[in-house]
Amino acid sequence: MIYFAHRGASGLRPQNTLSAFALARELGATAYELDVHLTQDQWTVVHHDYSLKDTTGMDVQIKDLTLSQLQKYPLINRFSGDVCTVPTLRDVLPVIQEELQILNIEIKNDGNLYPGIEASLLEKLELYAPELLPKLLISSFDYETLVRVRKLNKNVKIGHLCRQFDLAKTLALGASSLHMNHTRITPPIIAACHQNGLKVFVYTVNDPALATTLQAQGVDGIFTDRVDLFVKKP
C-alpha cells in the first residue's frame, strides 16, 4: 500500500506549503502529492485552488499575479504563528527529494487555463531535478491536459484522475494508474484496472480502518492528509 502525503502533511500544517512537505518527510513519507499552477510570469507554483480565497481570504487568481505579487499574500495558518506563502515547485523539490519514491504532480488546468503548462512543467523538471523524472506521476482532472502530456513525453507516468470510470479513456492515455474518490471506487473497477495493468489510487483517506478496508478490496494506494497515521520513520 502506498501512502501519498496529500498536499504534504496537510492535516498538520497549511496545505501545499514548504512546512507541510518538510513535516511529511520528517514523519517518514516517501510518496507525495501536490498541485501546480502558472503565475503571470510563468513560474510553476504549488497551490490547490485557482483562487487564493480559501487559503488567504483574498479572492485573487494565481494566473493574474506575478510570483513576487503572489508571495505577498500570507496563507492562513491555523496551526501556528509561522508565516507561510505559496511556494514554487523549484523550492519544494529539494524538501521532498530525500528518499522520494513517487511524486504525483496534479496539473490544475481546467479548460486549458494555462496554455503551455504541460511543456513548461516537463522542461522545469528536466532542469531542476532530472533524476526525479522516473519517480514522477502526472495527473489532472482535465483530460486534454493529459493528452498533451503524453504527446510531449511517451515515457512519463500518467495517473488518470477522474470522477467517472471510463477504462477506454484511461488506456488511451497509456496511463499507469487510475485516481478516483474512494466513495466512487468499487471492486469491479479495481478488478478491471488490475486486469489491464493499472494501479488504483484513491483520495482522500484519513481513517486507518477505511484504509484497511480499501486495501482488502485491492486498492494500491491512498492520498491522505494524515500521513502520520500510516507511515513511521525508520
3D structure, described in words:
By secondary structure, the protein is α/β, with parallel strands linked by helices. It has one domain (2-229): TIM Barrel. The protein is built from 9 helices and 9 strands. It has helices at residues 18-27, 53-56, 67-70, 89-96, 117-128, 143-152, 167-172, 187-195, 208-217, and strands at residues 2-6, 31-38, 44-46, 102-107, 136-140, 157-161, 177-181, 199-203, 221-224. An 8-stranded parallel beta barrel has the order 1-2-4-5-6-7-8-9. Strand 5, helix 6 (143-152) and strand 6 form a beta-alpha-beta unit. Helix 1 (18-27) packs parallel to helix 4 (89-96). The longest helix has 12 residues, at 117-128. The radius of gyration is 17 Å and the shape is globular. The model has no long low-confidence stretch (mean pLDDT 97).
Largest sheet: 8 strands, parallel, barrel
Low-confidence stretches: none
Arithmetic mean pLDDT: 97
Number of domains: 1
What's the end-to-end separation, in Å? Answer: 17 Å
What's the Cα radius of gyration? 17 Å
Give helix % range: 25-40%
Which sequence of strands runs across the widest sheet? Answer: 1-2-4-5-6-7-8-9
Strand content: 15-25%
Global geometry: globular
Supply the helix-strand structural class.
alpha/beta
Tell me which CATH architecture applies here. Answer: Alpha-Beta Barrel
Q: Order of helices and strands, N to C?
A: EHEEHHHEHEHEHEHEHE
CATH superfamily grouping = Phosphatidylinositol (PI) phosphodiesterase
